[in-house]
Amino acid sequence: MTDTNKNLFNLDELSGYKVAENYIDVRGWDVKDADSRIIGTVDHLLVNKTAERVVYIDVEVDETLIEEGHNTYQNQVSDAHEFLNQEGENHLIIPIGMASIDEKNKVVNTNQIDRLTFTQAKRFRKGDFVDFPYELNIFRHYMGDNTIHHSNSVEGFYAREEFNNTFL
Prior knowledge:
Blueprint: E1 9-10, E2 30-32, E3 38-48, E4 53-61, H1 63-68, E5 91-95, E6 100-102, E7 107-109, H2 115-119, H3 132-143
Parallel strand pairs: 2-7
Antiparallel strand pairs: 1-3, 2-3, 3-4, 4-5, 6-7
């Protein structure tokens, strides 16, 4: 897929985009779930160029979370015998509005999402192309909202409160 079809970009791959001077760059910070357990580390900030802002944090998942969810490797997702997560898939995205920061402790908190939800979430490999169907699936998984499906479009998607930029 070419960049013309790409919806999300790492902040550091876009010239002219950076964390604004008065905001905090959370890359490298731990990410905690609703129960204050570490689920990973912020690896990248993902920008939607149409919205002209960061819409997701890209989290490198902690190995213990992957180990907890190891049984998900055997769960069949479709009749095509696909598996939920495969070896090496250790990244996931979190909508920026579903995170808050603890600047003092340099931690990003995801108070709305518990560890089990993260454990069962579909992950991807670092550097993989994050397409819009993945965004819809992960959003539906976090929100438990079955009204979100592949017929939704990018247009207006980031107007949701879950994408309100709370700290960047």
